[in-house]
Amino acid sequence: MPRIEKANGRNESCESRSGLGSGSSPRNCIWALQPVQDGVSLPLGMRLLRLFAVMLFAVLVSAASRPHVVGFGSPQPVKLLAGPAEDKTIDIMVRALYVDSKLKEYTTGKSHDVTDREFVVRRALRINDALPDDSHKAPKWLWQRGGWLLVDRSSGKITQLKLPDFDPFYSEVSWYRDYAAYCGVMSNGERLLAVVAEIGARKPLYRKELGKASGGDLPDSDCAAPRWERRPPRVTFLPKAGERFSVNVIGHVADVAVEPSPDDQ
Description:
Oligomer: single chain
Number of strands: 17
Radius of gyration: 36 Å
Helix content: 10-25%
Mean pLDDT: 83
Shape: globular
Strand content: 35-45%
Distance between the termini: 100 Å
Structural class: mainly beta
Number of helices: 2
Low-confidence stretches: 1-27, 29-34
Number of domains: 3
């Protein structure tokens, strides 16, 4: 039940405030009566708004904590153009990458688990080969190999890695832990490089010039994929024009391994 409070919180009669006697009209006293509901602190609209905000926050938290499903589709054979005149083809396999049953990217080659929740995989993409003057308006898709993707299984996030001096055609990356070893090419396309990079590092851990790039028709024209060893972590580069050499990797530092001489053995 609502209660009636006197105006200004004082025990004054209507007659004393208005200066009228007991015969005055009650309508002169209506302004002094204030109904107050017990237990009501906010208007109804404010309470509904607060309830909506709480429910929206709960929905967002539930969506953020929901586990994501990351998976690959079936491998499909495609043709990759090769050679300066693109008159040769290489057979590669591509797979679709899905997150929560939605197509996110196309990939090629094997994936590598970096941690228990993250893995890397090479991207494959389709590029439109149609000329502006072609009569057919439909795109003419050609397959190309791209860079590397870092995929988080928990969040479903896909990040494109920036590997220094990485060439999408010639660089064959060999992974170990979160290290990537490969033969890169300078931006002018003339010089071949040996590179050891780490995920998250802005600069390569190791970078050495190997000589002139031949620009051959095949991805491994100048350098085969490097080979990793463990304990201690070591990678061996296999350039086709030059001697093989190894690089020790300790934490965020990499340096050429010193091979023992026959007299030391």
